[in-house]
Amino acid sequence: MTTATAPARVTPLVLVAIAVTIVAWASAFIVIRGTAGYFSGGALALGRLAVGALLLGVVVLLGRRWVWPTRSEWLQLIGFGVLWFGAYNVALNIAEQTIDAGTTAMIVNIGPILIALGAAVFLREGLSTWLAIGAGVAFVGVILIGVATGGTSFSDPGVLWALVAAVTYAAGVLLQKPTLRRLPNAQVTWMGCTIGFLVCLPFTGDLARDVQSAPPSALLGVVYLGAIPTALAFSTWAFALSRMPAGQLGVSTYIVPPLAIVMGLIFFAEVPAPLAILGGAVCLLGVALSRRKPRAKTTTA
To answer: What is the pLDDT of residue 26?
Structure first.
């Protein structure tokens, strides 16, 4: 008798959701850098989350589907909202006040490795050989991009804040995944964003001050961050996360740094070094390797 096991198939709709998420999140690094001179880290996070929570609330209201969370789900949602929407956004904004978008993206993308390891330990997803190989290869690509974009000194406090962003990002994903087993995607995303918004309310005074002096382009940047990388991209992320393993999805975000480099070229006239181009290719190779299916395990009786 022979039995075989194979990973769940990723549908075209899930692939589209992943693509939207990756492009939107890559653009966020660029927009944050462009607005960093006008908003403090906490103020920018509060403004972004206010827009995101408002738009996501409309989606939840129109959906007319609400599932009351259990006690454990409430704890997971609070942790997810505080860590990913709240702490992550503040840390990321502060990091980009002193280091460039490409280097920030490189450091933050330590997160997928932490997600893959955490998912194997805490979510019992397992860590396939190809996923481990793909994560390692993609991480090498991210390192190459970081070196090519300037190799920011690790004495820079921005690096520490980027590391905080990476850890809170990974922890947030691991807390979010279990809530998607029973709760609707839109509800989970809106609740997380709203919790993050509430956590950032102490920065209200900073936001009011910065809004008064910021140019229209910076204000539009805040609206964009709330609408696209937050409301839209976190929704498509939740959709994909509810339909595939967290570790495998996390590796997909290794495409974000090379995209951030390309966007930096377009908007800031930053010409990628040859090593950055090589790093981007290595990232894509790593993601492709992580998608390979392991050989079916067989048992004969």
So the answer is: 93
